[in-house]
């Protein structure tokens, strides 16, 4: 498949390097000409899980340099969420007649783009791959994760199988007939684990030890799950069962629930939240596509989501420089001042 990878950060760069290492034709699109020139000189290097490799960047250019004459069978969209929304309409014009756009961002990006551009053009995707970018062109694979792809309409398809087989030459790719449910399963954890850690400036294990941290986690998760079910989604098991033990619209405290939280802590408890890293580096966060996406859907379905809305407002205030991440913001998000 003639493939263009848009966004050569940690995830896009990892996929590009491993696909190039198989001898497959891959074109890369960067934000600007300077980034393209640096990658052209440095090439792509990967270390960590899956083995080390080094390849030439080959065809690399700014997004706008790919003219109307360029046609691709697959465009992997690996930018930040807002950038993906902005650039996707132009990318569709670079697809061949049966070409596919594959967004792999967190949150509701795949669904938003499918609604805007048509499900015949957009194949849903999410990533459980862990990767970091030391410098442009230098990446470390941190886990043996995978890409999950599927039709947002909720069915099996030949094109999903083709994409799995093609990208599976580089990284593990799985197909699910319930991609929408898988997106929600990851979104539930992003809404609680990742974004609460960002406002607290702490890992999950640190913030959940405080009463305000535990309560905000429970409220944000319960709200997001209520919205998911109200939209007709069927969140599927990934790390844990997305529906906590005995859940009936809110948590049921007890040993079983504590064990469920413990499973999440075992996987994510000591990781520095990626959104906290974005805040520390002055980068735009994806809050509007995570808790903000949930709060937006909640308004249409009549489900109250005050905790998720407060998390969104808090992250925006941090971004504007009005607040600084710290444990006191947990109580503030719960409406207790601070």
CATH architecture identity of the largest domain? 3-Layer(aba) Sandwich
Determine the CATH topology of the largest domain. Rossmann fold
Instruction: Indicate the low-confidence ranges by residue numbers.
Output: none
Overall strand count:
12
Task: Tell me the fraction of residues in β-strands, as a range.
Answer: 15-25%
For this structure, what is the CATH class of the largest domain? Alpha Beta
Classify the helix fraction into a percent range: 40-55%
List the strand order in the largest sheet. Answer: 5-2-1-6-7
Q: How many DSSP H or I helices?
A: 13
Average pLDDT: 93
Radius of gyration: 20 Å
What is the structure about, briefly put?
It is built from 13 helices and twelve strands.
Give a written overview of the molecule:
By secondary structure, the protein is of the alpha/beta class. 45% of the residues lie in helices and 17% in strands. The chain has 13 helices and 12 strands. The protein has helices at residues 10-21, 33-42, 81-92, 109-117, 158-167, 179-200, 204-207, 211-230, 255-268, 274-280, 291-301, 306-319, 328-333; strands spanning 3-6, 26-30, 44-48, 53-55, 59-62, 72-77, 95-103, 124-127, 131-135, 138-141, 147-150, 173-175. Strands 5-2-1-6-7 form a 5-stranded parallel β-sheet, with helices on both faces. 44% of the residues are buried.
Which structural traits does this protein have?
single chain; 338 residues; alpha/beta; Rossmann fold; N-(1-d-carboxylethyl)-l-norvaline Dehydrogenase, domain 2; 2 domains; five-stranded parallel β-sheet; four-stranded mixed β-sheet; 17% strand; globular
